[in-house]
Design a protein that fits this description.
The structure holds 2 protein chains of 2 kinds. Helix content of chain A is 21%, strand content 35%. By secondary structure, chain A is of the alpha+beta class. Chain A contains 8 helices and 21 strands. In chain A, strands 7-8-9-3-10-11 form a 6-stranded mixed β-sheet, sandwiched between helices. Chain A has a 5-stranded antiparallel β-sheet with strand order 2-1-4-5-6, with helices on one face. Chain A folds into 2 domains: 222 residues, Rossmann fold, CATH 3.40.50; 125 residues, RNA polymerase II/Efflux pump adaptor protein, barrel-sandwich hybrid domain (OB fold (Dihydrolipoamide Acetyltransferase, E2P)), CATH 2.40.50. Chain A is globular, with a radius of gyration of 22 Å. Chain B is an all-alpha fold. In chain B, α8 runs antiparallel to α11. The longest helix of chain B has 34 residues. Chain B is globular and about 65 Å long. The interface between A and B is medium-sized, with 32 and 23 residues.
């Protein structure tokens, strides 16, 4: 059973085990997975059961069968008839709709959970307000805030309730692109400045590749794959599940090496240099860059007289022919995995096979600024 | 004290105000509870409870008054036991409080229930995940959000209690200075030749109280709604 003391939990070793079975009308959820420390993304299309997992975790739903334990404390065990009430679970929830209290000010909203928390030793009010940039909003009412501001307050409110784990259910899904871009850096701060484990539900590949260290891929109520983000998202066999070919892409880690005079930034990767349009980051900073599969070309020889600046030697690791004219090729560059989307005709003409040495060609301007972020600190 | 009313008339006005205030105050906690149960819970017999609450709205008031007399009269089912502990309702002003409360109850429950159904249950769930137990969620989230409904329900109940006649006169009769409420006094004056003049003054008081009650309820619920929405 759980430890009685309510001191600051040791988030470094905090893990969560989830196994759930539940029959909905026309859909059965049957999942089991472990959540390591850090940010874990729960990924899948709508209707794959992501939100049900969050509801069961928060105690807002009673599954037919299941067991959930967080850091050794059992929250749910249907076999032992254990069902902890939501208010005893200490799961900080951030929902797609912010669910702020309309009758309370921003400050009162933020402090609501603190009032019920027996342990005030967690993050301080000032630190959270500072990290989320909500100091100017404290006296206002939720109704007078923009969608992005409201969601930041909701995140702060969940954090200040001193949760054992933060469960975020599509926190950006209701926001437009500009608002998403506004909040993502705050989520990165959250990940890097607090030690709290985060379960992040999303169907957006770019959000997950920016934020998460590991990912659980759900489809039709089943776990399809779990693992580190870089490995899962570069797996060509998962492309149909990961939002289709247009969303497909991989994540590589790079270090800022130089800011060139012509406005390009040189990144150092384990496979060689990578030039991108100016990245606002200090030299020496480590970044993760998402590269869409359709922006990667493959050549057998190092191309000459080509506008693309990034030409990196690579090896074919896996090849998957799609149902249509396309093919997905997984490449290994140094320690990184890259996904390339080409036509089956090209794959045949080039004679691509597993183990073949090739060159990956990437246009510098292809990488969107929103796809570059700070990497998670791997625990 | 101005002399356009006789002492008996003043007593009728004062008694009505007192009866209505007590009826509203005493039925409010039960009204919130019943509204909550009807709005949020599924249970066997829910329709029976709903019917019972609304019955006084459709029954002839004289029937309600007679049923109260059968139940709470000195020989009534409940009344005989109440008398043992010194509580006499029939033909007493406290009985007028009970009659007014019963008659006004459906209006109060209805207003509170409507505002409860408008509360976003997901916001209450969020309060739960932040560590608030069910009673705390009710006290800190639900109650403040339904305050406009509580105000409207209370004022409606108060106004209804001020005007209650049929059940009251059946249950507690029409004894000047003891159980003669405002409507009973108007009725009594109208039974006497030449009494319409006196009745008219009380009619004006009735109209004034009803209008004031509506104005107060409008103003209060708007003020609360403004505070909640922060506009």
């Amino acid at each position: 059973m759980g430890v009685k003391g309510r001191g600051t939990p040791d988030f470094g070793r905090m893990t969560m085990q989830i196994s759930l079975q539940h029959r909905f009308a026309g859909f059965a959820l049957d999942v089991a997975f472990d959540v390591p420390a850090g940010v874990t993304a729960l990924f899948g299309p709508s209707g794959s059961g992501k939100s049900s997992v969050i509801k069961a975790l928060a105690g807002l739903m009673r599954p037919d069968r299941g067991r959930i334990s967080v850091g050794g404390q059992v929250l749910l065990d249907t076999d032992q008839r254990i069902f902890l009430a939501p208010h005893r679970r200490r799961i900080g929830c951030v929902f797609q709709d912010d669910r702020l209290f309309p009758h309370l000010s921003v400050r009162q909203n933020l402090l609501y959970g603190r009032w019920f928390s027996p342990d005030k030793s967690g993050v301080s009010f000032e630190a959270v307000v500072d990290m989320l940039g909500i100091a100017p909003l404290l006296a206002r009412r939720p109704q007078t805030l923009s969608g992005g501001e409201r969601q930041r307050v909701a995140i702060g409110r969940a954090l200040l309730s001193n949760p054992q784990i933060l469960a975020m259910d599509e926190p950006l899904a209701a926001l437009d692109e500009a608002r998403k871009a506004e909040i993502l850096p705050y989520l990165e701060h959250l990940r890097d400045q607090t030690q709290i484990p985060i379960l992040y539900v999303s169907h957006s590949v770019s959000e997950i590749t920016r934020l998460a260290g590991s990912v659980v891929v759900l489809g039709k109520g089943q776990v399809l794959k779990t693992g580190p983000v870089a490995a899962v998202f570069s797996d060509p066999n998962l492309t149909p599940w990961l939002g289709g070919v247009r969303e497909a892409g991989s994540v590589i880690t790079a270090r800022v090496a130089a800011q060139d005079a012509d406005g390009l930034t040189r990144l150092e990767t384990s496979a060689g240099p990578l030039w991108l349009p100016k990245v606002e980051a200090a030299i020496g900073a480590t970044l993760r860059v998402r590269i869409a599969a359709q922006d990667v070309m493959i050549a057998l020889q190092r191309p000459d007289g080509i506008s693309a600046l990034n030409i990196l030697p690579a090896t074919v690791v896996a090849l998957r022919m799609g149902d249509g004219p396309g093919a997905m090729v997984q490449l290994r560059l140094g320690e990184e995995l890259l996904l390339a989307r080409i036509t089956q005709r090209s794959a045949v003409q080039l004679g691509l096979a597993v183990g073949a040495p090739v060159f990956a060609v990437l246009k510098s301007v292809a990488v969107a600024p929103g796809d570059i972020g700070a990497p998670p600190i791997t625990p | 004290m101005p002399d356009w009313f006789s002492p008996d008339e003043w007593r009728a006005v004062a008694l009505s105000l007192r009866v209505s205030a007590w009826a509203t105050a005493l039925s409010l906690p039960l009204g919130i509870l019943v509204a909550f149960v009807l709005a949020r819970r599924q249970f066997w017999g829910k329709q029976v409870l709903n019917g019972l609450v609304h019955l006084p709205l459709i029954l002839p008031p004289v029937v309600t008054g007679y049923l109260l007399l059968l139940t709470f009269g000195r020989k009534g089912l409940v009344g005989q036991y109440l008398e043992m502990i010194g509580i006499v309702l029939a033909f007493n002003w406290t009985g007028a409080v009970l009659a007014a409360a019963v008659m006004a109850f459906p209006l109060m429950v209805r207003a509170i229930r409507l505002s409860l159904e408008a509360v976003d249950a997901r916001v209450e769930q969020a309060a739960g995940t932040l560590g608030a137990s069910a009673p705390w969620v009710f006290a800190t989230v639900t109650l403040p959000l339904i305050l406009p409904g509580i105000i409207v329900g209370s004022v409606l109940a108060f106004a209804k209690a001020m005007g209650e006649f049929g059940a009251t006169i059946t249950f507690v009769a029409n004894i000047p200075g003891q159980t003669q409420t405002l409507p009973s006094a108007i009725y009594a004056f109208l039974q006497v030749p030449g009494g319409d003049g006196q009745a008219f003054g009380l009619v004006l008081v009735s109209v004034f109280v009803a209008m004031a009650a509506l104005a107060v309820s409008e103003w209060a619920s708007k003020a609360v709604a403004r505070r909640i929405s922060g506009a």
